[in-house]
Amino acid sequence: DLDAAKQQLEEFIPHVRNISDNSVRKMAGRDLARFKEFKKQGIAVKFGRFSKKENEQIRKNVEDFLSATGIDSAEKLLFTYRYPEDKGTIHRLKAKHLFCEKLSEGIPRPWRLIYYRARKMFDPNNYKGRYTDEEKEKLKKYHALHGNDWKKISEMMSRSNLSVAMKYSEIKSAVNYGPWSKEETRKLMNAVEEVIRKRLGTEEEDSHSLSEKSSEDLLVDREKLSEKLPWTEIEAKVGTRYWRQCKQKWNTVLINRLTKGQQLFRGTKGLQTKINLIKRLYEMDVEDPNDLNWEEFNNIIGDVPKAYVQGKLYKLKVSVPFWQKKTFS
DNA sequence: CGAACATCCCTGGAGTGAAG
DNA sequence: CTTCACTCCAGGGATGTTCG
């Protein structure tokens, strides 16, 4: 019946064949019935970032559950282990009032993702802004003491465990900051070329020495230049920078190459570009910024990387007064 | 004021372990 | 074995800051 489950799920989760048997079993038990119910109502299973509407729905579901059970805070509900004295009671209430079902009500996504999202939203240790230098030192010290026990460290730092784990991976080894040297940039470009070659399965690396690699014998689709690159591998090859720095630098290199001399965002041409962006946005008629389909912005500015369009659109967005208080539509 | 750089948050995949 | 609760990782995207 694992195969039967896969077959039924495939309709809702097209990539289900790539998911491990364990996860499929879980989804079959927990989500299949929900997905079918949504389908009856003509609602498709959703992926990608949660929209404002969905976040509101989660808030409502949590509030409803709290008032139904009398549990007095979302933190107690979602981080039960922080309240050892109430643990037994809360677990019983969760089971009795069908926590899983209620939490995911009205949201056409796999249960696990809704649960995970809710925990982030209601974790008082989350969304705490930038780390101070003292915090970074503390984090290093705690990691030296407790290793990868992120749960423990997160309690000690009053930051979410995801946040501390991520921050640590960023600061664990000393990296350079500030402008990239010519040498670093060259290393980065070599690294990217290497991984793309490897991916394409070209055996040329054996026959060509590094120095005689020329760019004209490698033609790849534009998307392959910036998407799904193995950044941790590239980080290792560059050696002096963190992978996110590498990703960003690569994007600026790519943008400069692809827009060379076009002055896309200056002068009257710049104004026209902005107008085009706004027009396209208007035509797309999306309710939520998280529902934007970046592919549809292709060729609005010119033949530029996705990251360029994303950056420009962001700048436009924040140039609207009080943009944070306004709805997208 | 835009480009470059820094650093935050999010997604979706996989995995674990306890309890029944 | 199933269900519930929790965790980690790799990569993508958003937002803040600095500088020429």
TrEMBL record:
One protein family per Pfam: Myb_DNA-bind_6
Domain (HTH myb-type): residue spans on this chain: 123-160
Domain Myb-like, chain residue ranges per copy: 123-171, 172-254
Coiled-coil parts of chain: none
Entry-linked InterPro entries: Homeodomain-like_sf (IPR009057), Myb_dom (IPR017930), SANT/Myb (IPR001005), TTF1-like (IPR053078)
PANTHER family: TRANSCRIPTION TERMINATION FACTOR 1
Protein name in UniProt: TTF1 factor
Organism: Ceyx cyanopectus
